[in-house]
Amino acid sequence: MNFNKVLLLCLFAFAFNLNAQVFDPVKWETKTEKISDTEYNLISTATIDAGWHLYSQVVPEGGPVATSFSYTTDSDAKLIAKTIEEEGHTVDDSVFEMKIKFFENKAEFKQRIKVLNKELSIVKGEVEFMVCDDEKCMPPNYIDLVFNLKEAKQVEEETTATTLDFNATETEIFEPVKWNTSVEKINDTEYVLVSKATIDDGWKLYSQKVPEGGPIATGFEYKVENGTELIGNTIEEKGKEVMDKVFEMKIKFFKNSAEFRQKIKISDKNTTSVASEVSFMACDDERCLAPTYLDLNYDLTKSVAVKKNEDKFQSEKEEGSKGLWSIFLVAFLSGFVALLTPCVFPMIPMTVSFFIKQSQSKVKGIRNAIIYGLSIIVIYVLLGTIITAIFGADALNALATNVWFNVIFFILLVVFAISFLGAFEIVLPNSWANKADKQADRGGLVGIFFMALALAIVSFSCTGPIVGTILVEAASKGGVAPVIGMLGFSSAIALPFALFAAFPGWLNSLPKSGGWLNTVKVVLGFLELALAFKFLSQADLVLQLHFLEREVFLAIWIAIFGALSLYLLGKIQLPHDSPLKHISVGRLLLGLLTLSFTVYMIPGLWGAPLNLISAFPPPLDYSESPYGVGNAKGGGSSASHAELPEGAHLLAPHDILAFNDYDQGLAYAKKVGKPVMLDFTGWACVNCRKMEQNVWVKPEVLLQLKNDVVLISLYVDEQIDFPEGEAPDSKLRPGKKLRNKGQKWSEMQTIKYKTNTQPYYVLMDHNEENLNVPVAYTPDHIEYIKWLKEGIGNFKKN
Fold first, then answer.
1. Is the pLDDT of residue 705 over 70?
2. Least confident window among 320-329, 581-590, 749-758
3. CB 78 within 8 A of CB 54
4. Contact at 8 Å (CB) between 297 and 275?
5. Helix axes 481-502, 347-358, angle to 10 degrees
C-alpha cells in the first residue's frame, strides 16, 4: 500500500474522530541509570494500548514513520552510539503489506551519554513516532522527553555488560547459508556423506574451485579415524557459471540450495558418526561476508539405504568431460601448429614416401604409415601417463597452484621461448636417436615403433616446448588431463602421416619447406614468452611481493607483442631467418592483428580494464596506481618510509600510515595521541576497494586519514596461519582453535560490533570506546567526511 495513501487515511481518521475522542494509544515515561561518574543511560519507555503497534527506529522504504529520538546536549554531554531498542516483532504488517519490526504492549529505548559538564542535571529530548492498529494509523506524533540525571539509579558494573549493544549499529549478523547433513548407505562398509546448504534469496555460495583473485572457495575437511577412508573427492552440483558482479570474473556458484557428496569406506563397524568442518564465503550482488567455518556431523546410524552407488550429480561428470574435451581440442590444435615447425613438417613427405617405396604394395604402405602414426600417439600418451602416475592426479593440480612451481613453470617457458627464438636448440642426447635408429632397422612392427620414437627424439627441439606448455596447462586441471592433452597433441601429429599415406597424391599439394617454417617457430617463441609471465604473476600475487604489478605486466606484454608485430612486418630479423624480399599477405595481416592488440593494451597502463585479456594480467587493484595514473596523492604525508613504526606500512597509492595488527596500531595511537580508525576489510571485498578508490581519495577525506587518525586495517579473509602452537581459542566456537588471522578479526567484529559485513569502519578512543556510530559502505564522500570529523571532534573534546 502506498505510504501517502496510508497517511491520508490516518489524517481522515484523525479528523473524523476529533470531536468524538482523542486517541492516545502510547504513553511515554523516562528514567535514568548511572553507570559511572560520567556515563548515564537515558531510558524512554513506551506503554502501548492493546491492539496498537509502535514501529522500530528502522523501517523499510515506503513504510510507516519510524520511531526516532533527538537529544539536546550542546557541549555539556555527548551521545555514545545510537539509541538502542528491544528485539520486538518482525511480521507481515497488514496495513503496509510489508515486513516491519514493531512493538506491542511495551517498548524500551536506551541512549548512553557521556557527561562533559559535571553541573549538568537535566537532558531534554524529543521522540517522533507513529502508531497503527490492524485497520488504521495515527498521524506522526511528537513528544518532549525530560531526563533527570540527579534522580539516576546507580546500576552495578556487571549489569552494564548488556550495554555492549551501545556499540552496535543498524547492521546485524547475516547468516544467509544454513547447513544440514544426511547419510546414504551403499552397503555395510560404504556410505555417502551428504551436506546440503540452504541459501537465502539474493545470496550466493561459491564452488569448491574458484579462479585466483576470486572469493574463498567452499571446502570440506573431514575428520576420519578408526580406519575410515575417504573415496575420491567431494563432488558438487553443476551450479551456475556466469560473470560475477562483485568479483567481475566468471565464477561457479550456487543459489537457493547446494548439495555436496563425499563417499567413505569404514572398516570399524563400531563407527557411528563422522565429523567435518565446512569453510565457505557467501556474497550477494554488493558485498561478501567474512569466511565462515562450521562443524558438521554425519550420523551413520540414521543412514538411508540406496540400491546402488549412482552418481547423483551426472552434471558434474559432464562438466569434467567438457573440461577434458577443451584440453583435447587445445592440444590437438597445438599439434597442428607443431606440424608447421621446421623439425616436423619436412618429415611428412620423407617418411610417407619411405613407407610407400619400401612396402611391397600400396595397401601395406598405408598400413605401415597408420601403424607409424599410432606409434606416435602411444609414445606421447605414455609420456602423459608417466607424468600423471609419478605425481598423482590430484598432486598435479596442487603443483600448478603452488608458488614455487609457478616460478619453475615461468623459468621453463622462458627457456622454451628463447629456444624458439633461435638462441639455442633443446635436443635430447644423440645417443638416444642413434639407438632408436638401430632398433628401427629391425623392421616389422617393432621397427616402425622405434622409427616413431626416433621422430619424437629428433623433433624435440620444436615439439618439446609445445609439449611442455601443454603439460603445464593440463596440470592445472588435475586428474587425467595430461594424458588427454598428449592424446590430442599426438593425434594431430600422427594424422598427416596416415592421410598422406592413404592419398599419396596429396603430397604434391603440400607447400614447400622454407623460411616460413622458422617464422612459425619464432611466433611460437613470442607467445611462449608472454605466457610465461602469467605464471610469474600468479606467484607474485600469492606472495603479495608487488614485483609484477599490473602496469609492469602490461608493459612487458606490450613490449613482447610490439616486438612480434615488428618481426612480422619485417622490421626485425633473428639468426635463423631467411632473407625477406617481400611480406606475404598472410604475414602482413597477422602483423596488423598483433599490432592492433599491442595498441589495445596501452590504455591499460592508465587503468583501462582490458576485458579481452582480463584473465591474464593482475587485477586492477594490484597496481602501482590503483586509483588511476595521474591521481595526485595529496593530503600531506603520514610518515616516510625511513621512519615507519613497528608493524606499520604505507597504504598505496596515497601513503596512508596503516597497521594490520590491532594491538600494534592501538599502542601507536596512544603514543601519538590520535584516535583509532578500525577498518574491517577483506582482500576479496569489492566494496572495500570502491571506498578506497572513490571515497578515500577525496582531498578532505585523505587529509583526515593521513593526519588525524591511526588506521588499523583488519582483513577478515587473511589466510595467514598462526605459528605452531600459538593459535588462540575461538570465542564463537568453544573448544576450537582459530584457523588463521582473518578468522581472529572476523570474530572480533562479530562479537564486539554485532555485524559481519565489510567494509565496516569504527572510530574509537584509547579506551576502545566508540567515538560515534560506526558506519558500513558509505559511497557518499560528503557523508563519510562528516562521520570522520564527528568522531575526531569527539576525541578532541575528551
1. yes
2. 320-329
3. no
4. yes
5. 60
CA distances from 696 to 445, 465, 484, 765 (A): 73, 47, 50, 21
Q: For residue 508, give the nearest of 634, 617, 353, 626 by alpha carbon.
A: 353
Predicted local distance difference test score (pLDDT) of residue 393: 45
Q: CA-CA-CA-CA torsion for 775, 781, 783, 786, nearest 10 degrees? A: 90
> What span, in angstroms and rounded, lies between the C-alpha atoms of 766 and 764?
7
**Cβ neighbours around 673 below 10 Å, total:** 9
Sign of the C-alpha dihedral computed for residues 713, 714, 717 and 720 taken in this order: positive
3-state SS assignment for residue 219: strand
Q: Are strands 53-55 and 122-129 parallel, antiparallel or unpaired?
A: unpaired
Residue 298, phi then psi, degrees to nearest 5: -115, 115
CA distance 540 to 532: 13
3-state secondary structure of 159: helix
The CA dihedral of 218, 222, 228, 231, to the nearest 10 degrees, is 10
Assessment of whether the complete model's pTM goes beyond 0.90: no
Distance of alpha carbon 654 from alpha carbon 289, whole angstroms:
27
The closest alpha carbon to 110, from 131, 90, 127, 122, belongs to: 127
Question: C-alpha grid cell for residue 16?
Answer: 473524523
Which residues, at least 6 apart from 571, have a Cβ–Cβ distance to it below 8 Å? none
* Residue pair 455/399 in contact by the 8 Å Cβ criterion: no
DSSP string, 266-284: -S-TT--EEEEEEEE-EE-
Q: Are 41 and 32 in contact (CB under 8 A)?
A: yes
Q: Is the dihedral of CA 216, 613, 488, 469 positive or negative?
A: negative
The span from the CA of 722 to the CA of 741, in Å, is 7
The torsion angles phi and psi of 701, rounded to 5 degrees, stand at -70, -45
Coil/strand/helix, residue 341: coil
Those residues whose C-beta lies under 8 Å from the C-beta of residue 436, and which sit 6 or more positions away, are 450, 451, 453, 454, 457
CB burial readout 477-487, b (16+ within 10 A) else e: bbbbbbbbbbb
Q: What is the pLDDT of residues 183-211, one digit of tens each?
A: 998 888 889 999 999 998 888 999 988 87
pLDDT tens-digit readout, 51-66: 898 999 888 777 888 8
Are the C-beta atoms of 305 and 185 separated by less than 8 Å? yes
Rounded CA gap, 459 and 376, in Å? 12
- CA nearest 184: which of 309, 315, 313, 317? 309
Burial string for 712-736 (b: 16+ CB within 10 Å, else e) reads: bbbbbbbeeeeeeeebeebeeeeee
The one-character DSSP state at 285 is S
Q: How far is CA 621 from CA 287, 609, 617, 688, 711, in A?
A: 17, 11, 11, 11, 19
Confidence band for 353, pLDDT divided at 50, 70 and 90: low
Do residues 620 and 538 touch, judged by C-beta distance below 8 A? no
* Sign of the four-CA dihedral 434, 438, 440, 445: negative
Q: How many Cα neighbours within 13 Å face the side chain of 612? A: 8
Strand partners, 694: none
Q: How many helices (H) and strands (E) does the chain have?
A: 18, 29
What's the one-letter identity of residue 563? A
Alpha-carbon span 277 to 219, nearest angstrom:
8
Whether 775 contacts 761, CB under 8 Å:
yes
Residue 316: strand, helix, or coil: helix
